[in-house]
Amino acid sequence: MQRSKKILIVSHCILNQNTVIEGEARAEGAVLSAVEWALKQGYGFLQLPCPEFTFLGLDRPSMTYEEYNTPEYRKHCREILLSILHQAQDYVNNGYEIMGLLGIQSSPSCDPIKGIFMEELRAIFTENGITLKTLWYLPNTSEPEFKSEEHYIQK
pTM of the predicted model, to two decimals? Predict the structure, then answer.
């Protein structure tokens, strides 16, 4: 079978809600509406690590953008993004297309525009000549239904 050679970069918790802080999970495991959409598009996944989990662990408190916005956390984000950068570069160098990024609306780390982790990801990608065509987001609701034609920031 021919590969699509299309890669979607995905926030960790869209594929694994088990890393979300207590009381904030939006699904039992993966967020099915987002996963099903991506599969129908023929996208392969490049799953991001969860920066909050790798920084503070599973039993972490709920924190705001301002609380995470520290030099230590930004450094941590950049460090864990290096392997993602190298994977994305390898995909691009081998004829694959990075279709975009799917993040979490209103997350202090993974909101595609105003999330610290995503700010660092976009900066590292820009510094290395990788373009993210589209920034999609999972809406910030208790039972989100992802709709690709509504839940995007740029195309």
Answer: 0.94
